[in-house]
Amino acid sequence: MFRFQSFDDDCTLEGEEGLVEEEDEIDQFNDDTFGAGAIDDDWQEEHTRLAELDERVRDPVDNTHSTNNVQPSSLPPPSSSSQLFPDVDGRAGGDLAESLTRLLLGSDPAIAGVGSASSDRSRLPQMLSAHPPHPSVLTGQPRLLLSYHQQQQQQQHLLHRGSAPLAQINSHSIWENNMGFSPVSVNAGLISQSEDKTLMSIIREVGLPNRPQTISREDGRDFSERVPPPRSSSPVIGSPPVRAVPIGTPPKQTLSQVLNQNNHPSAVHVRASVPLRYPPPFPERLSPNNLLSIAKSPLPHPPFPAGVNPVLSHIQRAQLLNSQVGHFPRAPPLLQGGVGGFRPFFGQPGPRVGPHCPPLPHAPIRHNTTHLHPQHRRMLNQRMQMQNRGDHVGSRGLGERKNRDPYSNLMTQREKEWVAKIQMMQLQSTDPYLDDYYYQNYYEKMEKRQERDRDTRKEHATKLITPQVAKLEHTYRPVQFAGSLGKLTVSSVNNPRKMIDAVVTSRTDDEEKREKQVWNKRRQILYTVEKMYSLLLEVQDFEKKFLQTPEHQREALLEQHKTHTLQLYNSLREKEWDDRVSDEQCLMIMSVRKGKRLISRLLPFLPQPQAAAVLMAIARNLPVLAKKDKQDQVLCWLVEPITTVIQSMSSTSLTDLLQELQASEGQLPLVLQNKFGVTLLYMILSEGERMQSSDPNCQLMDDNRWTELVFSVTRELLKVPSSLLSPPLFTPSNLLNLFSRYTDRQRLTLLQDKIQSVLLTTG
Amino acid sequence: MNYMPGTASLIEDIDKKHLVLLRDGRTLIGILRSIDQFANLVLHQTVERIHVGKKFGDIPRGIFVVRGENVVLLGEVDLDKECDQILQRVSIEEILEEQRTEQQAKQESERIKLQAVKERGLSIPKSDALDDF
Q1: Across the beta sheet with B55-66, what order do the strands follow?
Q2: Distance CA A47, CA B44 (A)
Q3: Rounded to an integer, what distance in angstroms lies between the CA atom of residue A221 and that of residue A223?
Q4: A748 lies in the same domain as A659
Q5: Number of folded domains in chain A?
Q6: Cis amide prior to A283 (ω within 30 degrees)
Q7: Same domain, A516 and A632
Q8: A31 within domain boundaries
Q9: Which of A59, A214, A282, A417 is the most buried (most CB within 10 A)?
């Protein structure tokens, strides 16, 4: 149940253009190299111009100039490029190559050789000269640049100012440490982390000062303050615009690295201070500076309205989902951590947990939107508190131990939250009854039990309001361009491309049935049973669903229910126009174990006449059924629903039923030999007796049928040897009364003995 | 900070010593450093522990990255309880020797069983699909 979250790109193109306008310098260069200025064919002139640029490269202030100036030959002919992409003219000319490299090489993790700078280098000139064909780059480009825009402005300026169009693999730098390096170190950091070999060679010549130690590959460095290599995780061509970071990417580390300097005073990061602002929505770009500043200056009140109801309504939930869950819950943990002085929350609860326990229940940390039952949450809080109390005692020793572990917190807070978020996303459900049936039922039962036991205490009668996540349709439609020939040629993990248009031809139901008939009749029966089962389950779940759907949808649900039940009835009929329950069909179904179970579950849902008809069919064919049931022995499942049916039967139908039971020759003895048969017989007789005794005017005695039938039963009972008489599931108490009406004393005692002896032999 | 209330998650287990049982029968003991949504594990200072009878031997292995689907179970090791053990620790060579002997004995018994079954005219199909050790 893994769902992409839609990412609201609220950045506009204006921002991008605004940015670009500031860098006139670069534009000028690019214009000269690619645009109008490059048409000039005079190589000598070009060379001198480029030589000037080259000198500037050596200037450490405006350092990070690109290598494109060093390799002019590898650049694509500008005119054709501007022709290909007419809509993005002068601006495009400048940024085109830049974005190309970014997107093609650095961005798409599936394309780029991750982390292998050398391959990037070798690929770069080839790629450029090969003239990347797809226009999708440009659609990707605004997005990419838009995401840039979201970055801190400061960094952006540095980026663009410091870099010339090409070779700077700027994609890496977006996802750089948001540590906000000071200007000098930023550039240095950027360069080093981009691992641009040719650029580096220049820099080495020049001798750039003070590359931060973080990247040095010294041995024995402390892992706690590591800076991970740049991860290629930029937006991808043609992917659905859900998020800038593909979901498989762990977040960059932020907080804990900063935090760990408490333990490792040798940290060398230089941090520029950033004005205080609230953390942006999860998961991106929560700069540790922001966090720190928030934390260190404790806010007088939580940054979100205190009245946030933990149980959100349906709409709020969907909104939350769409706007990236976790926005609210982020603040309280920060707050708590900040108030007490900054500590990594995890692993060092320490004595500071105490003052923070109370706020916890009010602002539950919730990365998920499926709510816990209030009882459940209460239990969890209790458990947590107990744990914390236990931790209190043990944490002193443990905490010290953890302090000394230099490899701790390799997994940063953000990464943990990221994993937790993914796991929570998997728990979201649109149909809690379907996904978490046992959990729901367990708590329902508990509620009922509590209500039963203590009616007075109202606090326990908390109802579980299970919110249902709105089912968001996330159909991925690959990027296509009007007028373009065919599909994207570039496909990657994130935007897979259909290679073959395979059409699925499914066989129709008729054909399927025919084939199965040819093969195996049993299979067909099972197939029918399966279909009926799914209908039955729908019908059975109807009640629950009914309670959950909102008012206006109930009509529709009711209709649906009716159709389902109708279909169920129809499936028992043999032919479409015949209204009676088909014997054959019933028999067929009941020849299978599953079918018997099905019938037993189905009977309660059938209306009286149909249920009676089913019962007749069963009675009529009891010997056959009994024989087929020899292996399974599950006919007795039917007893319970049949009891209900019998009790609601009229006297005539009852008589009919009894008659059916003895319809054919020698049927009754066989019936008596089967447990179910005997039980059924007794039930019928008992019901008849009940009718007679309770209502003296009952129609049972109107015709002699009943009496005659009972006579025959008694005769048979007496005839059949005790050994063959099968013990019933239960013996109704009023049987003797019945027999006493119809038989004389002698026979009565005989019958009594027989029944009891049978019971004794089994009991 | 309670990461995932009401659920089972490995996040709380990070930076703690764990014992991991793999599908191929190996037992690894290491400090759990990192996880992901598939329960792929990164174990640090891992030791492969071989158990034969009442003896066990440790082979230091370094860093392990275990793919989540290969894990049968894992659990945190109580550092206090780890000290007092009924099992006897032996050297690596010895435990490997013991393991070899055990394997041989097992194979031998299997062979005899197969033979006996064949003599009676039956056959036991070999189940290659099972994770067997």
Answers
A1: B71-76, B17-22, B27-35, B41-52, B55-66, B88-89
A2: 56
A3: 6
A4: yes
A5: 2
A6: yes
A7: yes
A8: no
A9: A417
Assigned domain for A611 exists? yes
Distance from CA of B103 to the nearest CA of A (A): 38
Asked if A250's CB is within 8 angstroms of B36's CB, the reply is yes
Facing residue for B11 by CB, picked from A250, A384, A416: A416
Residue length of chain A: 763
- Whether A592 maps to a domain, the answer reads yes
How many C-beta atoms surround the C-beta of residue A267 within 10 A? Answer: 18
Final residue belonging to a domain, choices A588, A604, A636:
A636
Architecture of domain B7-120: Roll (2.30)
Residue A438 in any domain: the answer is no
Indicate whether B121 pLDDT > 80: yes
pLDDT at res. A104: 52
Q: B69 CB near a chain A CB, below 8 Å?
A: no
Return the pLDDT at B27: 95
B1 and A405 in contact by Cβ < 8 A? no
A665, A754: one domain: yes
The count of CB pairs under 8 A between chains A and B is 68
Mutant choice from A247, A419, A428 vs B, greatest count of B C-beta within 10 A: A419
Q: What is the pTM of this model?
A: 0.38
Does ipTM surpass 0.90 in this model?
no
CB contact under 8 A, B2 and A384: yes
Q: Tens of pLDDT along A342-383?
A: 333 333 333 433 343 343 333 334 444 455 677 777 787 887
* A212 in Cβ contact with A268 (< 8 Å): yes
Q: Which of A 340-359 lie inside 8 A of B, CB atoms?
A: 345-347
Break chain B into its structural domains and give their ranges: 7-120
Rounded Cα distance between A520 and A514, Å, is 10
Is A698 in the same domain as A729?
yes
Tens of pLDDT, residues A280-339: 444 344 344 444 444 444 444 444 444 444 444 444 444 544 444 444 344 343 333 333
Helix (H, G, I), strand (E, B) or coil at B37: coil
- Model confidence at A162: pLDDT above 50: no
**Do A405 and B15 make contact, defined as CB atoms within 8 angstroms?**
yes
